[in-house]
Amino acid sequence: MPEPVVxxxxxxxxxxxxxxxxxxxxxxxxxxFVVEEVLNRVPALDRGSIDDLICGCGLPGGEQGFNLxxxxxxxxxxxxxxxxxxRYCASSLQSTRMAAHAIRAGEGDAFLSVGVESTTRxxxxxxxxxxxxxxxxxxxxxxxxxxxxxxMGDTAEIVxxxxxxxxxxxxxxxxxxxxxxxxxxxxxxFEREIVPVPLQDGRVMSADDGPRRNTSLEKLAALEPxxxxxxxxxxxxSCPLNDGAAAVVVMSDTRARALGIQPLARIxxxxxxxxxxxxxxxxxxxASQQALTRAGxxxxxxxxxxxxxxxxAQVIPSARGLGIDPSDDRLNPHGGSIALGHPFGMTGARIxxxxxxxxxxxxxxxxxxxxxxxxxxxxxxxxxxxx
Length: 387
Ligand SMILES: CC(C)(COP(=O)(O)OP(=O)(O)OC[C@H]1O[C@@H](n2cnc3c(N)ncnc32)[C@H](O)[C@@H]1OP(=O)(O)O)[C@@H](O)C(=O)NCCC(=O)NCCS
Hints:
Helix content: 25-40%
CATH architecture of the domain at 267-385: 3-Layer(aba) Sandwich
Distance between the termini: 22 Å
Order of helices and strands: EEHEHEHEHHEEHEHEHEHHHEE
Structural class: alpha+beta
Largest sheet: 10 strands, mixed
Bound molecules: coenzyme A
Oligomer: single chain
CATH superfamily of the domain at 267-385: Thiolase/Chalcone synthase
CATH class of the domain at 267-385: Alpha Beta
Number of strands: 12
Radius of gyration: 20 Å
């Protein structure tokens, strides 16, 4: 059976939505730009041999509509098939997983997994229109359906309360994310994964907008709750709203070997879980356990863990549920989405880039990427570094 391997990956820097650097970029153009740059890293791969371009996008409507995957295929003149998938925040973890599955099934040797989101451009429309919600599923419905439309901030408040995560603990975690991201930025860590992006004013963007150099526990403690009066989830312990794109080239090990392409990592296993929508933040626990079981591993075998930082309120109990101390150096050692940002559809592929970069930098062998997903899900993937 052919094994799926990652042969190249890269990402744009992450812009702050509405007030950051990438507001002038359409999401389809940005994704196409990143795909071109990442494909340039594997010149031995014939562009005509790509079996499918699978594009993860959280809200694939508006400028992200029209089957974005095929649009990106046309914009890059790859002219390969293209599809668009949403699993909200884990959309481009899903797209990488689909590429891995197709390869294991023997139905292709070269796939592009792309992730993109421009929250700024939601101003031109999205796929999620409030008036289109099913009235049968609205909160308090007589059939006892769970609140599938619950807002993410509300889920964070619920998880914080039920799991007894204090405001101070969340703020400390938020600070840790900022400090680690700033240190990684200053050490040039992210330069190895970032594809610099030209801006309309002639500048080139080569660093994430996000990390805050001048924050402190005192400043974080002074922020008002963002989602609920008297709550504890704030702009400082949540991920912000962002724009960005990333791409991963997934090949079969057999084709990569035949073309003399050195794989970066092997996709070992994945996991996928469902839980009550209001506890979605804890989705990483079961999803990761599934991936570990399928890999024949325990959490002790993992050298680096990336839990997507939707909210400190959910990363802290998710880490504990996996048997990792939230302050462990193995967890998000270069910061996470609280500091870097979380362009939903991009983040699965962005974390894959950061995880591989982290394994290469630290000499670690095995990494776990895991995310919570709106609507009540969790996803996970285990990667083994090969170079
Ligand atoms: C939390 C949220 C509502 C805050 O929105 P916002 O008020 O526009 O947030 P901003 O990031 O622009 O921060 C507002 C202000 O708070 C202050 N602030 C935010 N983070 C700070 C920090 N770490 N330290 C100090 N001040 C901070 C700043 O004054 C900031 O203004 P500035 O960016 O101009 O300096 C929004 O980011 C959000 O919805 N996040 C969650 C997104 C989400 O649900 N994702 C899916 C997860 S599953």
